[in-house]
Amino acid sequence: MIVVIGGGPAGRFGAMHLAQAGKEVRLIEQRRIGGQCLHERCMLVCALNDVARLIEYARTQKDLGILDSVPAVSYPMIRRRVCEVQEKLSSVLDAETRAAGVEVVYGAEGHLEGSRAFIDDEEIRADAVLAATGSRAATPAVPGTDLFGVYTYRTLSAMPDLPRRMVVIGGGVAAAEFAHIFRAFGSEVEIVARHGLLRDLDPKVRSAVLRDLAGVCIREGTPVASIEGAGRVRSVLLSDGGEIEADAVLLATGLVPRSESLQGLRKGPDGAIIVDRQMRTSVENVYAAGDVIGPPYLTPAARREGVVAAENILGRDTVMDYEGIPQALSLRYDYAFASTGADGGVTLSAPAPAGPGSFWDVTKGWAGLTQIRVDPETGCLIGAAAGVPGASALLSYLGYLMKRGITVYDFDDIVEVHPSTDGVSGLSRYAAGMLRKKKG
Q1: Residues 174-212: tens digit of each pLDDT
Q2: Which domains does the chain have, with CATH numbers?
Q3: Chain mean position to CA 373
């Protein structure tokens, strides 16, 4: 038997892959299948941002005189309906997983002591183990994080109603996404970032992102000293002596691997299980995948890691390749980017074409951004980014094509869908013409 601990993307995909290959697989899930992606992170952002975008588009059209009002948000009803949809999706995933031949055990804790596997306190025979126990929210070491009204992505569903003033602490994707959502809902929002907000983004892409965060006060290079309140949150004190009033505080300060139940395995300083490219741990026949092995903390990467682990359990030598895996954040537009990892190249940027989801924004002189990075010697596309409605789907396929060596010259033969917000095709054809001209 093969034991899989954790029913998130890595564990579920790994378990199904093994079962479909004819193995007896038992998946142990303490809560609900689908992991944090479904119940607290990715899908929650999708749900809330769908509503936020509707409000923003309505606001734009009201300003143009097309609509006569902007809808108001019932946050308690959003909470209720989100839970209903999550339960439906979880039941679908459960049925899909069982249909693949996986035995699913709920309400139990799987844990390891070296090569010994346990379900609660009962040791279970396992020919191999896939540990996919995920991550948890990182909590900064500042006083007041235990006050009522202080939330993480995992506890946000308990917030009873919209706050008048919200402080989002963090400088990453989650901080930007939730700040955008609650500002659209009507809350006053401030982001407090210890260093910079999205500082690893290309400057032009970051500039485009900040357009979507207009109306959000952003404080960078500002550590938090404490969160104040008598029983419930009242304000956030900053290290520079400033103070921000707040009815709610959201800690978007990153993730840490959830590996406490996995003993006897080699770990990093943050608790991440150390694996090789085959997802093998330091203990024979024990594999790990997903957030528990640390960054990049991406659902597509976790799914692939689970499959790679399964392939190696089956004796098929397979390595994990992170090249070309796209990343994204969801604001008014989608912002997505992918790279082959190659350095250098020529970067070209251009406004994106207007299309579905961006037509009315042309009145404000903006329809998004397209960017590509090209190897001038070979014409290979080695990086791309887009800030447009639908960018996430576009970059999913583009990242794979870049990995396969697509060149800007190949775009001469591509006939794209129209109307579309895709500016990569046109920009790539422009780059191809520019390189041909340069080469004479």
Answers
A1: 999 999 999 999 999 999 999 999 999 999 999 999 999
A2: 2-137+256-313 (3.50.50.60), 150-253 (3.50.50.60), 327-439 (3.30.390.30)
A3: 23
